Amino acid sequence: MRVVRRATPLILATTVATSVVAGAFLGFGFLFAEREAGGKQMKRDTDFGHPSNSAYYWQRTRLPQPQSRLEGLSPFGDRFRHPAPQAAGRGRVMTPLGWVDLKDPRLLQDLPPGLRRTASHTRAGRGGLAVGPNIVQVSGEAIAASGPAAIEAELKRFGKVSGRLPGNGFIVRIADAAGLAELAAQPFVEAMAPWAPGLKVDPALGRTPKINARQASASQLDLLVAAWPGAGDDELEGMRRRVEELAGKGAVQAHDGD
User: Fold this and answer.
1) For the whole prediction, is pTM greater than 0.90?
2) Residue 126's closest CA among 48, 186, 177?
3) For residue 143, how far is the Cα from the chain centroid?
4) DSSP 250
5) Cα dihedral sign, 49-51-53-54
């Protein structure tokens, strides 16, 4: 038993010593490999001239520069270049030109005369309507009580509903003057205004920079003229004739049935 007791520490000591030596060699090997790999990786990362480095690409690559467009291509003019922004709020409807108050008599007053539209029937405190497309704002209480589908069905009694706008707005196209007064008198109507032609024009038209200098200096614009959803064949044909009167018959082509 004494031999065993004496041999055990010796064996343990030898094992520990062997482990320490092996660990030292292994640790040195791992450390060497890590330093070698890390050194090479660090060299790649800091070498900006290395083809695989992103900084190398961006330092030697010149991005295309946008070219400004000619003056006078936008139908909005300089006065409407930077319209005053309006925030969302009660009584305002979101349009392509921002949030507007339909009851404000100065609605879109900065638009050029050819892009405005005057109401032919007005109602105190609500705004006005005209034959053709209009924005009709419905009260939030009416929508909560009846639901958007029921309100839209009610609006269809006076004309074609061609879309909805944020802020409880509906686009209603009224065919004749008979329905103007009746729709304006509906209790669920909170505000209303004729849909101005300027609302159908992209504010960036004629102002978007071009990469190609030749295109940027061109005075001719390629436009896509779209009809209201649900337009019939007679409406499409009438719209085409009016566009041809402006641009010339040979300049108008059909686009996907529109």
Assistant:
1) no
2) 186
3) 26
4) G
5) positive
What's residue 31's pLDDT?
38
H or E element, residue 93: strand 92-95
Instruction: Report the distance separating Cα 27 and Cα 13, nearest Å.
Output: 20
- pLDDT digits over 111-155, tens only? 888 888 999 998 988 999 999 999 999 999 999 999 999 999 999
CA distances 122 to 72, 182, 188, 194, Å, are 35, 12, 16, 10
Which residues have CB under 8 Å from 164's CB, separation 6+? 148, 152, 170, 171
* Strands 160-165 and 98-101, sheet pairing: unpaired
DSSP reduced 3-state for 92: strand
Strand partners, 129: 121
SS (H, E, C) 105-159: CCCCCCCCHHHCCCCCEEECCCEEECCEEEEEEECHHHHHHHCHHHHHHHHCCCC
Tokens of 114: 């050819």
Point out the residues of the chain with pLDDT beneath 50. Answer: 1-45
Q: Are strands 92-95 and 189-194 parallel, antiparallel or unpaired?
A: unpaired
Token pair listed for 139? 């009260």
Strands 160-165 and 132-138 come out as unpaired
DSSP H/E element including 240: helix 233-247
Residue 52 confidence (pLDDT): 66
Helix (H) or strand (E) holding 36: helix 2-46
